[in-house]
Write a structure and sequence with these properties.
Blueprint: H1 11-18, H2 28-31, H3 59-75, E1 82-89, H4 91-98, H5 100-116, E2 123-128, E3 131-136, H6 142-157, E4 160-162, E5 165-167, E6 170-177, H7 185-202, E7 207-209, H8 212-234, E8 237-246, E9 252-263, E10 267-269, H9 271-281, H10 284-306, E11 313-317, H11 320-325, H12 328-339, E12 346-351, H13 353-371, E13 375-381, H14 387-393, E14 398-401, H15 403-406, H16 415-429, E15 433-437, H17 442-450, E16 455-457, H18 467-477
Parallel strand pairs: 6-7, 9-11, 11-12, 12-13, 13-14, 14-15, 15-16
Antiparallel strand pairs: 1-3, 1-6, 2-3, 4-5, 8-9, 8-16, 9-10
Helix pairs in contact: 4-5, 4-13, 8-9, 10-12
Length: about 475
């Protein structure tokens, strides 16, 4: 539990706490007419205590019950309880790609499974968006809480059949155990949410128990979000470029644009630190538009200075949020027109995982992008589950072999080498280009050459550089950029 004066830093959280408009609300004094433990909100006005969307108890009733649990603990020394904060992973993508009607049915189905995973004395409520909160009342020990968590995870792991769509979701869960230090429900739910975000960030861990260090990190995250908003307004971002190289000749055949953040106090901030926050908040849409526009302006000028006989490749990473929430097709058309860049230069890099949850909605979007004249790259190829079907469905013309495969390349003819060989052979038969990323040594280059991999990039050739050093590199090496 954290000090009250820190709550002012949790503005977004408190605003959500105050918003009771998601479901029907009740007079909490009326709910107190029924004893909390062992009851299920039966009695007069029962419908007013249920969420109109999910059928679960309302947030107002939940917080009334949690407040009573906090009070009861101060009266009974042997009384314990726990709060779970549950986030449905990738629900936002499902909602955006399949529509809000499917999303609402998904929430109702998930609510039912959550309710089935707890006891009658426990309380589950929908907190809003893709989040639920659970109050586990009168627990014996932490092992019982973890059993409930495992049961919830198991229930949610089964496929949901919604309007003909088979949907798979998982959940990130934050856990808070009762403590005499907690005085308000808001404090406890806040800490459970903080633990949930930690579980979500670690990806391989489906749940985390709150500890005090997490709050410090949550405050840092909120500060980072605030700084990101200022960075967009004050234009604190800068682009670096990593050369894409012909492995046979070592000629530079293109550049991949990579964003960096020149923070006024922290210095250069790497994408892995701020991109996840930008995606969670939707800020990735304006940031992504800036990257596309700025890179096209810079490379259009670069080509005038260095290119005389045709275009070269400009690689740009695209977030799933940009694809689902932004208007990427019209923005791309506008930027091509404004900058005068040849659309054949542009290769939008899209990770394989994007297609896993959005196959149906992505096909027309990708086809419309291709109509603008640009090219599409499947990034991190081989790390997903249905790569071959994606190659059949989507209009990609380049595969990027994930660095996790390249990193394991050695002098021996091992299983990893055979996987890369298969990817290259497949691409060649489909008339696609291949780029290996993450090249760091000569052994990897030699193995890739032996496997007939045409192109690569990595620190062995060059780390990402700002445009002026790239120009200097070009002048010193006197190499003309070629069309890939």
């Amino acid at each position: 539990m954290q000090k009250n004066n820190e709550e002012e830093k949790m503005i977004c959280f408190n605003q959500r706490m105050a918003d009771m408009s998601d479901c029907a609300t009740i007079d909490t004094s009326a709910s107190s007419m029924w004893e909390f433990a062992g009851e299920d909100a039966s009695g007069p006005g029962n419908d007013q205590m249920k969420c109109a969307l999910t059928g679960l108890p309302t947030k107002a009733l939940f917080f009334d019950r949690l407040y009573r649990a906090i009070e009861r603990m101060h009266r009974k020394k042997d009384y314990q309880y726990s709060v779970l904060f549950i986030n449905l992973d990738r629900f936002r993508i499902i909602n955006e790609s399949l529509g809000h009607a499917v999303g609402n049915e998904m929430l109702r189905a998930a609510a039912m499974r959550l309710a089935e995973g707890v006891r009658k004395i426990d309380t589950v409520t929908w907190f809003g968006r893709d989040e639920f909160i659970v109050l586990l009342d009168n627990i014996d020990n932490s092992k019982n809480v973890l059993r409930v968590v495992e049961r919830i995870q198991s229930n949610l792991s089964l496929p949901f059949l919604i309007r003909g769509h088979e949907i798979f979701v998982s959940a990130s869960i934050g856990i808070v155990y009762s403590s005499f230090e907690y005085e308000t429900p808001h404090q406890m739910v806040r800490d459970a949410e903080t633990a949930m975000y930690r579980a979500k960030a670690e990806k391989r861990i489906s749940y985390r128990v709150f500890d005090s260090k997490m709050h410090e990190q949550a405050v840092k995250r909120l500060n980072m979000e605030s700084d990101l908003r200022k960075a967009i307004e004050q234009k604190e971002f800068v682009l670096h470029y990593q050369p894409i190289v012909d492995l046979r000749t070592h000629d530079v055949v293109g550049l991949e644009a990579l964003i960096r953040w020149n923070h006024p106090r922290r210095g250069v901030v790497q994408p892995m630190e701020f991109i996840p926050i930008a995606e969670d908040t939707g800020l990735i849409v304006p940031i992504g538009t800036w990257v596309l526009q700025e890179a096209c302006y810079q490379i259009a000028e670069y080509m005038k200075e260095f290119i005389s006989d045709g275009p070269f490749i400009l690689g740009l990473n695209v977030s799933v949020i940009q694809l689902l929430q932004g208007d990427l097709v019209s923005e791309t058309e506008r930027i091509i027109k404004e900058t005068g860049i040849d659309p054949k230069c542009l290769k939008l890099e899209i990770t394989e995982s994007v297609m896993m949850d959005n196959a149906d909605s992505m096909v027309p979007l990708f086809n419309n992008l291709r109509k603008t004249g640009i090219h599409l790259v499947m990034d991190d190829f081989g790390t997903g589950y249905s790569s071959l079907s994606y190659l059949q469905q989507f209009p990609f013309d380049t595969l990027k072999i994930d660095r996790s495969f390249v990193d394991k390349l050695g002098p021996d003819n091992d299983k990893n080498t055979k996987i890369i060989q298969t990817i290259i052979s497949l691409a060649m038969h489909l008339g696609m280009n291949v780029i290996a990323e993450g090249i760091e040594n000569e052994v990897q280059i030699e193995r890739l050459r032996e496997l007939n991999c045409p192109y690569g990039q990595g620190f062995y050739f060059s780390k990402p550089l700002e445009l002026e050093p790239v120009k200097q590199f070009h002048k010193e090496n006197n190499k003309r950029l070629k069309f890939l």
